[in-house]
Design brief:
The structure holds 2 protein chains of 2 kinds. Chain A is mostly helical. Chain A is built from 13 helices and no strands. In chain A, helix 9 packs parallel to helix 13. By secondary structure, chain B is α/β, with parallel strands linked by helices. Helices cover about 35% and strands about 30% of the residues of chain B. In chain B, the strands form 3 sheets. In chain B, strands 5-6-7-3-8-9 form a 6-stranded mixed β-sheet, with helices on both faces. Chain B has a 4-stranded antiparallel β-sheet with strand order 11-12-10-13, with helices on one face. Chain B has a 3-stranded antiparallel β-sheet with strand order 2-1-4. The radius of gyration of chain B is 25 Å and the shape is globular. The chains are: A mainly alpha, B alpha/beta. The interface of A and B includes residues 7, 99, 261, 262 and 266 of A.
């Protein structure tokens, strides 16, 4: 595994070169993602303009919630987004190739692609976060910044792990599209709005089953000094733990799936 | 000498959903949890020695690819034993990978959007190929495969023949002991096929690489391999020299006789009259029962013979019969 890790930057280099073959696609993609983010935020601002605040969250607080998710998501999007495509590699037999080379198959799969569209997310998220920070007049201490950074990392690991688990399920089912589309729908809702506006069972679901609320919502309630929707104090501190547990589950499911890999016919 | 590949009572079964028939069959299949075992490879055994070039032949779905995937460690056998270069493939997959080369003709193992040479450079890193070996091999491939003609072209723009050559180069770059080729010439034109066959000969002569070749092209087999293994419905039905395959699987030859004048009814022992129009007669005979020369002597003594020829079945035709399931495997007498 460590030896394979040495090859990862080389795989990525080839992936970047491959992408650069289609330059106009690259530029259109970047532009498109920035527009998409603007549209998302303006929808929220329309809602807030109408209701003043959403469940006690002011506009810039929601911008910060969105930016926090987008910061970790953008790194996920650049390097890990193609976990959604794992089932295609398995279904079309491309996975066989990874297994006949002396290199860890996970590294080869992850090094297969790079998704430049995430770069636009990074630019947008950083800008949105800075604006929110100054508009909310925040003065974070070093310890708060450290917690923020840790929470971002946890958020990244949570998103990677969820995709890893769902992707690996296709070792058994052959396809994991349906599960992915469910999980993406839930995360779109939870990243744009504080979960306070949803019902009790929804909050429980995104906390205990598909724990995406640990990516941004719970850590941010601590940083903004807000009461969280489940009224369990300091729940956000558990984000790194949730991330580690999910990562472990991801690793186990992947291992188990790989051991029983049955390849595909021709 | 221990064989380089040893396969013993190897079996692979897949569990597939039971297909329902009749009304709402698709939906019932979707929700059904029933599984049945489908045997892809059924208790096969063979060994391959270092330097052998073996053809592995059989109709689609006969179990060829499944066997190759078990040899490389991609698939775990259901039962039986596989040993390749003294490794157990599924357990020591990555160690084994360093010493074998694999070409799957249906999908390239090169990076699609970058020039061929970039893929080769990356493979150099993956296999940790010393610079001297890498350069020597590139030179060899330039020589034998004309790699330099298209090494700066992205793989997606290559013709199938060029792609096959690039894939061969990629599979051989790290000097593997064994080369496993799964339908390498699929879709490739006649010239490129000829290129491939010559290359295989040179490779075997210079490097003593052991080759297991799967193909549907019998000419590939005849020109490249000395030995062939025929598999059908997961079982080996022939394992031996390509040359003696005809005798064993298709012992019947055809004797064609032209007469100088019209001849009436003919009778000849140990033969079966296929057609007879007075001027020309065709007989089928079993080469194990009677020789062609005996027949010719007998005919010439009794009838006004102008010309005689003996036709052998083509390997192609025999294999087609196997594919179609119409071959009657001769019983030993």
């Amino acid at each position: 595994m460590l030896d394979s890790l040495r090859l990862y930057p080389k795989f990525i280099e080839i992936a970047i070169r491959s992408r650069m073959q289609y330059r106009s696609d690259f530029l259109v993609g970047i532009f498109g993602v920035i527009i998409l983010n603007f549209v998302n935020l303006s929808l929220i601002s329309i809602l807030i303009g109408r209701f003043q605040a959403l469940a006690g969250w002011r506009f810039w607080e929601i911008v910060m919630l969105y930016a926090m998710w987008l910061l970790s998501h953008s790194v996920y999007a650049v390097f890990f987004w193609h976990l959604v495509l794992l089932d295609e590699d398995i279904l079309h037999g491309r996975f066989d190739q990874y297994l006949v080379r002396p290199c860890n198959p996970l590294i080869q799969f992850l090094g297969r692609e790079i998704n430049y569209m995430g770069v636009a997310d990074i630019i947008f998220a950083t800008t949105a976060f800075s604006l929110a920070y100054s508009n909310l007049d925040l003065r974070w201490l070093f310890s708060q910044w450290a917690f923020f950074a840790l929470a971002l990392l946890a958020g990244l690991v949570i998103e990677i792990s969820i995709s890893w688990i769902i992707g690996s399920i296709s070792f058994w089912t052959g396809r994991s599209r349906a599960l992915f589309s469910i999980s993406i729908r839930f995360s779109v809702l939870s990243q744009q709005y504080p979960i306070d506006i949803f019902g009790y069972w929804y909050r429980v679901f995104v906390t205990g089953f598909l724990p995406i609320a640990f990516m941004n919502y719970y850590p941010l309630t601590i940083l903004l000094g807000k009461q969280n929707a489940l009224e369990i104090p300091r729940l956000g501190l558990f984000s790194p733990l949730v991330a580690l547990v999910l990562l472990l589950i991801g690793w186990l499911v992947w291992k188990k799936g790989l051991a029983g890999y049955t390849s595909s016919g021709n | 000498m221990t064989p380089i590949i040893q396969v013993q009572s190897l079996t692979k079964q897949f569990r597939v959903p039971v297909r329902h028939k009749g009304r709402f069959s698709a939906i019932r299949t979707l929700f059904s949890l029933e599984r049945e075992a489908k045997t892809a490879v059924d208790n096969i055994s063979f060994t391959i020695q270092k330097g052998d070039m073996v053809g592995y032949v059989g109709p689609n779905g006969a179990g060829k690819s499944t066997t190759i995937k078990m040899l490389t460690g991609i698939l775990l056998p259901t039962s039986g034993r596989v040993e390749v270069l003294e490794f157990t493939p599924h357990q020591q997959r990555q160690q084994l990978a360093r010493r074998i080369g694999v070409v799957f003709g249906q999908k390239t193992q090169l990076w699609w959007d970058v020039p061929v040479i970039e893929s080769l450079r990356l493979l150099k890193e993956i296999y940790k190929i010393p610079a001297a070996t890498y350069n020597a091999n590139l030179e060899l491939f330039n020589d034998l495969l004309d790699l330099h003609e298209f090494q700066h072209t992205p793989v997606r723009q290559l013709s199938l023949g060029q792609r096959m050559r690039s894939d061969l180069a990629a599979a051989l770059l790290h000097n593997p002991d064994i080369l496993l080729l799964d339908e390498p010439t699929i879709g490739v034109d006649v010239v490129a096929k000829e290129h491939f066959r010559n290359f295989m000969h040179q490779l075997n002569r210079e490097r003593q690489v052991t080759v297991l070749l799967t193909t549907h092209d019998m000419t590939d087999i005849e020109k490249v391999c000395e030995r062939m293994i025929i598999i059908d419905h997961g079982r080996i039905i022939y394992d031996g020299l390509v040359a003696s395959m005809k005798e064993q699987l298709a012992p019947h030859r055809t004797l064609v006789v032209d007469f100088t004048q019209t001849v009436g009814a003919i009778e000849l022992d140990h033969t079966e009259l296929v057609t007879h129009d007075g001027h020309q007669a065709r007989f089928r005979f079993d080469r194990r029962q009677i020789s062609a020369s005996q027949l010719i002597t007998e005919l010439a003594a009794r009838y006004p013979v102008k010309d005689i020829s003996v036709e052998d079945p083509e390997i192609e035709a025999i294999v087609r019969e196997i594919y179609e399931g119409t071959l009657q495997t001769p019983k030993e007498t």
